[in-house]
Amino acid sequence: METLDQLAATLGPRNCLTQADDIAPYAVDWRGTWQGTPAAVLRPGSTEEVANTLRACAAAGLSVVPAGGRTGLCGGAIVAPNGPPSVVLSLERMNRIRDVDARDFSLVAEAGCIIQNVQQAAAAVDRLFPLSWGAQGSAMVGGALSTNAGGIRTLRWGNARDLVMGLEVVLPDGRVLNDLRRVRKDNSGYALRHLFLGGEGTLGVITAAALRMVPALKRVETAFVAVPSPDAALSLFSRVMGSGAEVIAFELLIGVCMDIVQKNGNGIRIPLPLGSPWYVMVELAAAHSSVPLREMLEDTLAAAAEAEEVLDASIADNEAQRANIWRIREDWPDCARRECPAINTDTSVPVSAVPEFCARVEAALAARWPEGRLFALGHAGDGNIHVSLGAPPGVERAAWNARAGEAEGIVNAIAVDLGGSFSAEHGIGQSKRHAMATHKDPVALDLMRSVKAAIDPRGLMNPGKMLP
Questions:
Q1: Which residues, other chains included, contact 202 with Cβ-Cβ below 8 Å and sequence gap of 6+?
Q2: Where does the chain hold its CATH 3.30.70.2740 domain(s)?
Q3: What are residue 65's phi and psi, to 5 degrees?
Q4: Architecture of the domain spanning 219-333
Q5: CA–CA separation, 130 vs 132, rounded Å?
Q6: Is 3.40.50.140 the CATH number for 2-90?
Q7: What is the pLDDT of residues 72-126, one digit of tens each?
Q8: Dihedral of the CA atoms 269, 271, 274, 278 (nearest 10)?
Q9: Checking DSSP bridges between strand 278-286 and strand 246-254, what pairing results, if any?
Q10: d(CA 179, CA 192)
Q11: With the C-alpha atoms ordered 209, 214, 220, 225, is the resulting torsion angle positive or negative?
């Protein structure tokens, strides 16, 4: 293909991959669910090279699928099967921290920067970049922003969208939108960056972002708590939110998840005896070391225990114990994958509706698939509960998908009925386009299609994703 020959000459042959072995890692998602072979993988090293690449692809009518760390769970960075000829545009070489300004509490990072490296750059100047989730060691800035990633600290600092002050974006025709200003107030018209945050590369390619930092945490207290029910967990949540401490995480996990982590986790220790129907992880933090967090947490847990909202609790005494608690949550996806195939969901409801959501989901799935295993865990502090229906022993993935695939739709419908969303933090990609057609407001879909047509009229950016 002449266009690829031109790009190889521009980017260098090592950055225009066409051999099957070279492009294989870019042709399948992390779960192994979505597969699609690109015509090539392009690896530009600068904003100018991204612009030239998109300009060349547009001239040739070649579709572009942007990719970062490829840790997404909805197939958004994989070429759509039966779609138009496409190239994957990998931002991995654009991995520079352009600027860190401690006094401004901001930094500018390129799209290929790994999230953990951004966190380290902030820590080096006694600041915190609070975006955090299990894949932060491989996920990249561009992908995190394009999917509006969430994680365990959304409760306190919001999703990725809330940490962005400005963006640099290359549009489908190769023009560069330079909106990297780091101001807190700017009422000069439409906030264009929000079109690309959560846009999943369907409108353009994020190449850099001005990100917000916060004061470093000087004291942290973490507890692993056994609770009798989601309703009790929500009562505990109200208590910790009113304790006077800064609550930065509040996770809810059904008891069976602990059994699976204990079985499949590598060196993970469950801090409490197994047997409780539900567990909670709660973390408090302060920017000053003198804040009496331990006392606040102990008093809150004692009051909750007296009210029978807490069955047992273990507070981490050191960083190793704290890290062990969070490994339970962060290693869950790998532990679950080793255990059995599952139908997975990513839903959110108002925080107050979490107990009703859990109860309705459990009843609905048990009535339809009594042989299945209910896995439920997630960010109860922001209403994002991940429900999975695990296969019984001996049932393979394809068979379970065929047998229980409707479980996702049932869970989505319950979430939407409670005023929630069928996609909380993973995005839409390929896997949730059907849910968009079913649950998204028709007027909202019309507006989204209008925006897409205005910015990418030829539909070359990440085709087959997001919009049904």
A1: 452, 456, 461, 462, 465, 466, 467
A2: 340-443
A3: -115, 105
A4: 2-Layer Sandwich (3.30)
A5: 6
A6: no
A7: 989 999 999 988 999 999 999 999 999 999 999 999 999 999 999 999 999 999 9
A8: -120
A9: antiparallel
A10: 9
A11: negative
Burial class of residue 405, CB neighbours in 10 A (0-12, 13-18, 19+): exposed
Question: How many residues are there in the chain?
Answer: 468
CATH 3.30.465.10 domain range(s) in the chain = 97-215
R_g of the chain, CA atoms, integer Å: 23
Q: What is the pTM of this model?
A: 0.93
Report the C-alpha gap between 409 and 417 in whole angstroms.
12
Instruction: Annotate 58-99 with DSSP letters as a single string.
Output: HHHT-EEEEESS---SSSTTSPPTT---EEEEE-TT---EEE
* Cα 144–Cα 147–Cα 153 angle in degrees, nearest 5: 60
Tokens of residue 148, six digits? 């509006």
Q: Of 3.40.50.2300, 3.40.50.720, 3.30.428.10, 3.30.70.2740, which CATH number belongs to 340-443?
A: 3.30.70.2740
Task: Walk across the sheet containing 106-110 and list its strands.
Answer: 97-101, 106-110, 205-212, 164-170, 176-179
Q: In this structure, what are the phi and psi dihedrals at residue 53, rounded to the nearest 5 degrees?
A: -65, -45
What's CA 144's distance to the chain center, in Å? Answer: 7
CATH class of 97-215: alpha beta
| pLDDT tens-place string over residues 192-230 | 999 999 999 999 999 999 999 999 999 999 999 999 999
CATH code 3.30.70.2190 region(s) in the chain: 219-333
Locate the DSSP E strands across 91-237: 97-101, 106-110, 127-128, 164-170, 176-179, 205-212, 214-215, 219-227
